[in-house]
Amino acid sequence: MNITLLTLVVIMSAFPNGNGSGEGSHLSIYIRVLPGEYDGLLEWPFPYRVSFSLLDQSDPVLTKPQHVTETFSPDPTWKNFQRPRPGALGSVRGGCLDESMLGFGYPKFISHEEMKKRNYIRDNAIFIKASIDVVQKILNS
């Protein structure tokens, strides 16, 4: 039996001081699908559920961590989740990267004030988990 894993190429961008409508007040997070070697064999538009989580670094023995999570399922009409074209780039407008360069995400994922209320920042570091739910899509097919 041969098993072949096809590679989907994505990039996550995080802006600790925000971008766009969240600039200066929020953590902004985005995901973008990039051109890859196996794009011709993959399903398009991108059909998988995506989740971002800002991890609460509180000691789990002392308190239950309260991660901040946002999840979305791409709409088949969204241009950012169509098959990517090699060499396609976005632009910079007004000092912020525009959506075509960033992909899709949350310019106001969490405010700086909310981040200070728990241990999202610890030792001057944050941890962000991004997940793509390929298994759920396969089960629903």
Describe this structure in words.
By secondary structure, this protein is mostly beta strands. The chain has one domain (about 10-140): Apoptosis, Tumor Necrosis Factor Receptor Associated Protein 2, Chain A, CATH 2.60.210.10. It contains three helices and eight strands; from the N terminus they run ββββββαβαβα. Strands 1-2-7 form a three-stranded antiparallel β-sheet. A hairpin with a 2-residue loop joins β5 and β6. The chain is globular and about 50 Å long. The chain starts with 8 loop residues before the first strand and ends with a helix. Residues about 90-95 have low confidence and may be disordered.
Outline the secondary-structure elements.
Layout: E1 9-15, E2 26-34, E3 49-54, E4 68-72, E5 92-93, E6 96-97, H1 99-102, E7 104-111, H2 112-117, E8 128-133, H3 134-140
Antiparallel strand pairs: 1-2, 2-7, 3-4, 3-8, 5-6
Strand order within the widest sheet? 1-2-7
Number of domains: 1
Helix tally?
3
Terminal CA distance = 23 Å
- The proportion of residues in beta strands is 25-35%
Average pLDDT number: 85
> Using only CA atoms, what is the Rg?
17 Å
Pfam families: TRAF-mep_MATH
Signal peptide: 1-20
Domain MATH: 1-132
GO molecular function: tumor necrosis factor receptor binding; ubiquitin protein ligase binding
List keywords for this structure.
single chain, 141 residues, Apoptosis, Tumor Necrosis Factor Receptor Associated Protein 2, Chain A, three-stranded antiparallel beta sheet, 8 strands
